## 1
Amino acid sequence: MDSTVRVVATRSDGEIFSYSNADWGVTELSGIDFPPIEIFTEDRGFGNGSIVTGKRKGGREIEIIAENKNTANNDIERLAALPFHNSNYTYDLEFMYMGQTKIAKNCELQDASCPAKNVFEPLELTVEFLAPDADLYADSETQTHFVGITPLWHVTRAYAPGGGKLAFGVIQRSILKSVRYLGSEPAPIVATVTATGAVDGVVVRTNAVTVTINVELVEGDVLIVDAAAKEVTLNDSRVSESLYNYVDVPSLLLQYGDNEVQISAVDEDNLAFDAKLEYTGRYGGL
């Protein structure tokens, strides 16, 4: 069993604090298992029981208790811990626990304490954060490309019949891919299309949800469909929502298991583009 426990906070200004290093160690950690779950009900109009009218997962409260094991460095570690924890900033918290690493993003500092006690005793730091998202995130982004190159063998100084060039590889393009996703919560996708020629209209689909963007691309144009941000951009400028079915963009999600993803031109025979799919896994707990 992997007994490693590591917690690192990254502040919104880029500063970093580790609760697990040569001096600090985490003694207690809570709030990374399940988010709060609310079920809304109404009494049945006839008979016993209730009608479930809705449900939601709330933001999670995370508490970290750490102890400074090296009392000789109490003055240094206290000076580092107190200024770092400041409610004027937000924090990304990275947790490594039992061999898994997950991240709580954009957390707000709710409470913090580091009691002033005997200076020869170990420091104890307690911090409480509110993570606004119910989900924890994977520690890295997953990418897959819709184009690949298969290299072929070649011989130095060999010449093809008739003086032609030697083949060096095969470029394989696809507009459909099967993506296996094992996160416990749906993951929004980011589809990037880079035009290598003229492309009249782009289609992005995950399973039964299809978004068609009615734009004309020329070589070098970059179109990004971002389901998490709920927007489409062309060369870093927002595409008018009148040019695509914007209400479906947030529904471009990967579900647990096998997903069919399509990134293509409206004319599926047009392969004058490179395509890339990105997503960050989401999890209900760690």
Note: The helical segments are 74-84.
## 2
Amino acid sequence: MSEAPRMSASLDRILAEEPVSLRFAETRPLPPPGSPAFLHPFPRFLYGLSGERRITCGIEGEIIRTTLKPGALLFSPPGGWVAESPGILPGEALFSVVLLRNELRFIHVSDVKRLYHTNRPPSETLRHIFSAILAEQRDSSIGRRLFKLLAELLQSELEASLREALSESDQLWKTIREFIEMNLAEELNREFIAARNSISPENLSRLIREKTGLALRAYVNELRLQYARELLRNPRLSIEEIASHAGYHYSNYFIRAYRKKYQTSPGSDRKLISR
């Protein structure tokens, strides 16, 4: 089964079921030191398909270690985080969708993690419904009905994307880009990225240069600054916290790099972004 039909089959199942619970992850408390959690700058949800996927997240002011059971639904706002347990146990499966700025990212995790990216931005209607669910911040009949409508729209957008499907090379590129984006706080190097994405280091460098016109180090720095700028939209995060989660060990260095890129400081830019 190719990735798009797999995603469509998951949505079919979700539409045929009723969610058993609806919860909301938060930005705070921040993930504990050493956690693989990522402060995702875009809204997303996770839906348990089978088994009990172990997760850790911030909910109602506490760090909660729990399981994502079949039918359980977890929404995460921009800047929210969810850490999944390493490895995938037999019978575990979940489905997730991320509303990126210029595309939708569908994720199916069972025996392995599979991704599918659309080639166009999510519709404004989809964004509005997602925002309305996040505004609920509680398990309610309204939230559950909105989620059903959201799933129907996601199915429509997925079907539309199949008529303009990305090439295998473009899907590989988006997968690699997503891996880098999700690991910006790590010490990223060519060998590490290549090994985790089943590509040779030479081909990785060639692909990044072809797609971005940049060398790996310059591209990673570009993504770190873009990510930090997205996190600035969350007023609950300090500049120091944003710097750390974007992969900068020293906030002063982050501020200098940010000023060089955007000709303004992170603090000044936050005021403009928040207007």
Note: DSSP finds ten helices and nine strands in the chain.
